[in-house]
Structure formats: structure tokens, C-alpha cells
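Ticket #4471: structure output looks truncated?

Reporter: J.K.
Steps to reproduce: submitted the chain below (373 residues) through the standard prediction queue, then opened the result file.
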Amino acid sequence: MSAFTTLRADLASLNSTARLRQLAPRRGVDFSSNDYLGLASSSRLGAAIERAIGAGIAVGSGGSRLLRGNHDAHQILEAEAAHFFGSEAALFFSTGFSANACFSATVPQRDDLILYDALSHASVHEGLRLARAAHCSFPHNDAEAADNALADWRRAGGSGTPWIAVESLYSMDGDRAPLADLADIAARRDAMLVVDEAHATGVFGPDGRGLGAAIPPERRVTLHTCGKALGVEGALLACPEVVRDFLVNRGRAFIFSTAPSPLIAVAVREAMGVLADEPERRDRLQALIAYAERALGPCGVAATGSQILPLILGDDARAMAVAARLQASGFDVRGIRPPTVPVGTARLRLSLTLNVTETDVDALATALRDALA
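Returned output as attached by the reporter:
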């Protein structure tokens, strides 16, 4: 059909540049998932869901939170999450993408400024497309540049609230934001920090509360994805109570979405309990990170001190070819290309989880040397 001519041409263009994405089944040893603590198949989470079903909790919510979809399980989760993450309130979203986009599009107002790290997640950019506030980026992890940008904005007459949006642990590079420096800037510039803890929640901070746990709660909004180290799905926005109430009243992505399953809320609560009760999971992951950095470093894999270890290969086609060789050798490793990462930085994103062992890491190192030859 002629209606699809442009779509087919765009797909052909992606294919010619080795950027055509396709869905692929999970197979091989897991070096690509975000199930960092191995909770996705946890019997403890499964048992919590079984108990909830036995108690009569429905699978579906039946509507949006402002209609009949608001379940006690959602509200209990939000109250416990606010306490766990050290905030006045929390709001549960069906995905981290919707939470990030909804916040950026809703909370900052016309006189405000959203200042975001140049490597911020696509969900932030989606929210910026709808945002009322002015917005601009600053170079990745450059706190001084962020400070200068805020000073320039104030000198130019900026009178509202600056919102500094960063990821505490970046999903493609595995490096950390300079949160202490940014918190100092926020205090001096009367700004708010918006910290996406997606890849830090469960792994870093006291009891896995994230890298931003030390930031005063009145100066921060934190996003805690539930589909990574927590092993479930959804996202919790931990924030001042006024922010939560404003999103409930003005956040279109929240208002007009069917509420998450109350069973998912039950599972997330149980996962937070695991974080508090089983610190040995984090200890095991940290030991695996240190082992993998030693084993994979000679292959050119960057040591990040985190569970995300990138191998920058540069060329899109080469990244995909090396990934394919590893997959053929029995390892689930995926190539990452633009626009997910900047042009010229196509890579393998090696993800460490408790689903693998040191023996698996050694085997991957051997296969990687062969694939790169």
C-alpha cells in the first residue's frame, strides 16, 4: 500500500546502516538483562503473589487510579515506598518511562527551567517535548557547566524553580552522576534535583535505596524503577507530597492510564522487603562486578565499578557482528547503536546479574576474545 511507502523506506534506511531493530527471544547465558539481583524469578515474590490471589486480590485493576482502579495494594506500596526511600510521598506508575515523561511534562512550570544531563534517558526527552518550562542540556556529568548554566539563566531574568535532571547511574556507560556536587549547587541556586535511580535502586545506597539517598528530601525527587533490580515492573516516584498531589491532579499520563495490577504492587512491596532482609545479594553482586572487571578488562571492557560494563566498538555493524558471534557461542549479549548511544560509540553493553557465576564470566571472556579477533 502507498500509505506505507515512507515507513518501508525508513526501515530500509535503518537496515542499510545496521540500525534496524528486531525482537529476539531470550536465549543463552544472561549478560543483557537488568535483573541485577536475580529477583525476577524469585520464589519469595511468587509466593507473595500467590498469597494475594488467595486473599482475593484481582489480577486487573479495572480502571484508572482516579476511578475504581485505586486499590489498597497501591496505597500500601506507596506509603511503604515513601518511608523506604526517605520521602514525604510516593506515586506508583506502570512504567519508568511514563513516570519520567509525566513528571517532566507536568511539574516544572512556565517560569521554571529544566536543566538536564546530555545523556539523559529518552523518557526525559519525551517529557520535554510536552513541557511548559524552558529546558536545556549540560555536558555529561559536568557539574560546573550545570552551575554556570543556572547562573546565566538567573542573570537573564530566570525567576522560577530550576530542576536539575540526571541519572544517578547511567544505563549505557555505567558511570555515576556527581550527586554531591549537584546537591550543593541545588542548595546554592534554590534548585531541585530530579534523580533517575533506575539502575541504582536495589544495588547501591543503604539497603539499596539508591545513590541519592543522602540528598535532603526537600531538595530531591527520585525515580525508582521496579523492573530492574527489584525484578518486577512499574516505577515509584518518591517526592514531596505537593508533587504527588499535583501529578494526581495534572499528570495526564497518570490520570488517563489504567492502574497497574494490584498484584504487581504486592510483588514490588515484597521486593523492597528482600532489599532490606537480604543484603547478601548486593554483596554477591559487588564481588561479581570486581571479578568481571578483572576477567574482561584485557578484552577492552571498561571498569565502571557498577554492574554495567560497556565495550565501545564504535562502528554500528561491528558491534552487531561481535554481538552475533557471542550469541552464537551461547551468551545473551546485545549490541547497542545510535540513537540509544551517540554516533560513533556503538557498543556491547555487558550487564552483570546474579543469574550468572564467575565461571560464566570466564567463559564469556574467552568467547569475547575470539569474537574480537
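Triage note (M.O.): checked the attachment and the full C-alpha cell line is present. The chain has a mean pLDDT of 95.
Status: closed, working as intended.
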